Every structure is written in C-alpha cells, then in structure tokens.
Amino acid sequence: MARRPYRWNPPRAREMKRLRVVLVNPPPLAVVEPWYDRPDWGRIALAYLAGWLQRDPAIEVFVVDAKLERLDFSQVQSRVAELAADVVGLTAFTNEIKPAAYTASLVKDVLPDAVTVIGGVHVTALPIQTLEEFSSFDVAVIGEGEQTLEELCSAIRCGDDLSQVAGLAYRPDTQETDRLVQTAPRPRLLDQELLPLPAWDLFPPMKSYWLQTIRGCPFNCVFCMNHNGRIARSRSVENVIEEVRWLVEDRGAHELRFGDELFTVDMERSRELMQALIESGLGERIRWDCQTHVRFVDEDLLRLMKQAGCHIVELGIETGDEEKLKSLGKGTNLEMILKAAEAARRAKMPFGTFFIIGQPDETSESIRRTVDLAVRMNPDLPVIGLMCPYPGTEVARLAAEGQGGYRLVTTDWDEYNKQIGGAMEFAGMLRNQLEWIQVRAYLAVYLKNWRFWDLLKFAWHYRGGAWQMLKKAVLKRSMSNSLPRPADYDDRLGGGRRATVEDVVVARADWEEVQKRELVRAKAAAR
C-alpha cells in the first residue's frame, strides 16, 4: 500500500502549540503468550520515555498500551486519532514489528501528517532495513530512546534538521523515497540517576508495576542481543527505595516486577537494597519477582530477598549439557547451576528456570541432558523455549550463514516467537520434532516429579500459549499461517524490501562494534 509522505512543518507552525506525542504499545495478532500478549502490567519502556518527555513543557505526552488495555487495532487507531497526535511513537521486539507497522499504517489513514517513530530492540538491530521494509514508519530511534526522542520531538516542533539528532534513521526527502539517512550513534546514559520516575500516571490502573534498577549485563550469550550493553549501569539503593515508596504510596502498588537482566549482579548492592526494603517496612507491603544469574545468588542473599518480599526468583539455565554451557557465553556450569537451585531450596525461595532447546550444534543427546536437568532441578515454574534467531544475536548470524547446525528459513518477523515460532531449521532434526520435544519436556518436569495438580494449574494458566504450541506441533503449520490477521494485513505491509541473510550477518557485525565502542567508553568514564 502506498504511503502518504510526511512533511516537516516550518518552525512557526509548530511553535504555536505544544507538540502532542502519543506512545503506543501495539496490539498482538493473537494471544500466544498470555503473560506477555495480555499482561497485567504496563510497558516500562514507554513509561520511561513518557517520564523523560514530561519534563519538557513544550511536549504533551500520552500513552496507549494496547496489550494492557486489551485494545484491538481499530481501537488504537481511534484513540490516537482522538488525541490528535503530532508524533506517534511505537515500540517493538522482533515478533512485534509487523503489528507495529500495521498500527502505524492505520494511524497514517487518520493522521496523515503525523510523524510515526519506531523504537525498540528490533529496529536497533536493523535500522535502515526496517524503514525499507515498512513504509509506515517515518523515523527510527536506535538504542536507548529517552534523549533521542526528546531531541527528535524538539527538532520536529522547531523544524530543525534531523541530521543533528544522534541515534536516528529517517527519510530525509519525500521526493526521494528510497533515500534513507542514519545519524551518529547515541551514547548510552551512564548515570542512571538522571532517569526520572516512569510516567505510570499516564497508564490505567494495573495489577503489577515494573522497575528497572540496572540496565546492562556483563555476559555475551549467543542467543541474546544484550541491547542494554555489557556494563551493568545501576541506580543507587536510595533512588530505588524512593521509587518503590512512590509506587506503594502514590500508585497503590502491591506487586512489583524487577525487570533487570541480572537483578543481583552486584551482590553487595543487592544485600543493601534488601536491608533497605526490610528496614523501611516496604518489604512487608509488596510482593515481587526478579530474574538473575546462578553465579550471583547464595542462600543468605535468597533468604534476605524472601524476607524483603520476593516470592519467586527466575534463573537462566538454558541447557543441561556441560559442553554447550562452555560455548554459550553465559559463564556457568552444571555445578554452579545445581548449587544455586539447592540454595533456593534451603532458603525456601520458589524459583523458575529458563531453558532453550536448539543450542548451536544441538544433538538429541544434549537435548536429553537438558530435559534431565530440568526434571532434576524441578523448578516451581519451568519455561522451555525453542531457540530463536533474533537479529543482532550470534545465533542469527550462525543461522544466516548456515553454521551451528542452523538454517534460517524466513525473515517473516511474525515467525520470531521463542515458544512457537518457526524462523529456522536445525540440522538432523525436523522443526516439528523439536516442538514435540518441547511439549514432552514440560510434561516430564511435572509428571516425573509427581506434580499432577501443578501441571493442571500450569496448563490452565498458560492455556492460550499451550494450545498454540500443541496445535502447531500437531498440524505442522507455521506461525504466520496459523495466527489470525486482519484482512488487509499483508496488503498494508507488502511492497517493502524484506531482510536478507546478508542483512542479518551485517546486523551482528555492526552491533558488535556498537557494544565494543560503548564498553570502552563506559570503562573510561569509570576511571
């Protein structure tokens, strides 16, 4: 479908009023993963962006979180139109990028002069290609978005040249629709104390609230893009306590989710934070969860976390094969994993585990070891996914080049779901075989540990995703063929340049350069 080009208004036209910015979390095509597609919490990335923009009196900001509010595409279109947005910012992971582009296309129908901006992990990995594929996006924000989006909005309002705004890709000339520009990289915000409180006041009431106390992870896992970088940039304990108190006393929060990649990566800081939660009395007023690394937990810390209100800690295990663990980039081994699980049991701390079937050069024997470890650990909440080649990751590069026992079969981003996607094939194993192994692995954890009632509760709670997983395994249908889609979905999203294997390979190399550059900068700043 042809796009109607936008035009930058002259400065005087924009200066007459505040710029109206609407931030959108687009709807899912279907509820595949209920805990994600129909959450009881708001999208924290949008909350931080909105909080940052609220500081500028020239900007009026709104949030439409379609997943939280259970809105469909037409409802989002109507809401954005009612708000008369000048700028519409959307966020998307890889499996959300097509619904986001479809949403932007609908917005263009009712607000043809609005500037549509796409941000998030996917466009950070493939900025130019994303704009080439989806004409409904006018501008891409690459990397952390707070400073970039504010400067972009200021440039739009004043009619300034976008080439001076770091961290963008955009269409500079409506007469040359194939020409795209990428500006200088945006350095990451090293001082996390500069971040304002997330603008949760722009969201409807919700059951759970997310907190981000650390951005970044020091590890280099092959399956993860590590979009926040390899330096863990943390907020002070006092700053975090201030936010928790605000959430409890001003927002009425009772349930929190710490969204840090590795919540306890600094164990001493974690102990200080737990003590602060306990001594302030906040730990008695909330229940919360987090995810972390088996290297950074012990029995004493887990007991302290439980006393401070933690009701479950989630651990990234990935595989039960010792050799695979060595090459994963995660810095773990089986002894460390089992020690962490035992520490959780002694501390009486419920724990969840993340496993991924389909590691590089995976074999039936290494898969068996993974399933055996999952059964042996017997986590309260097992999560067993299939490897997905997200752009920017080493796994994606391997798949694109036919290495690691992988073959990339599509760049239809609707297939990029870690539970039931079908983006790549595995040497010596049919995709359908792995899907059945995934189903049997879930069953093994519960049935071999005689947890029949827990299995029924798990299946009921995640029934939407379980049904999609089972249906795909039985019918051998791809995600893109099984998900319900609007009638004009393909027409609106067609016509652009699909990503090639070369794009995926280059994306990994480019991202590695970004990571190295930022690592050097962060270390220099710390001296």
Architecture overview:
The protein has helices at residues 11-15, 34-37, 44-53, 66-69, 73-82, 97-110, 121-125, 127-133, 146-158, 237-250, 267-280, 299-307, 322-327, 334-346, 364-377, 394-400, 431-447, 452-461, 463-475, 479-482, 489-493, 501-526, and strands at residues 19-25, 59-65, 87-91, 115-119, 139-141, 168-170, 181-182, 208-211, 214-215, 233-234, 255-258, 287-292, 310-318, 351-357, 381-386, 406-408, 424-426. It has 527 residues and is α/β, with parallel strands linked by helices. It has 22 helices and 17 strands. Strand 12, helix 12 and strand 13 (310-318) form a beta-alpha-beta unit. The termini are far apart. The model is unreliable at 1-15 (pLDDT under 50). Helix 15 (364-377) packs parallel to helix 17.
Specify the overall morphology.
globular
Structural class from helices and strands? alpha/beta
Mean pLDDT: 92
Radius of gyration from CA coordinates: 23 Å
Biggest sheet overview? 7 strands, mixed
Amount of beta strand = 5-15%
Strand tally is 17
Poorly predicted ranges: 1-15
Can you count the helices? 22
Task: Give a concise summary.
The protein is of the alpha/beta class and 527 residues long. The protein is built from 22 helices and 17 strands.
Task: Looking at this protein, list some descriptive labels.
single chain, 527 residues, alpha/beta, seven-stranded mixed beta sheet, six-stranded parallel beta sheet, 17 strands
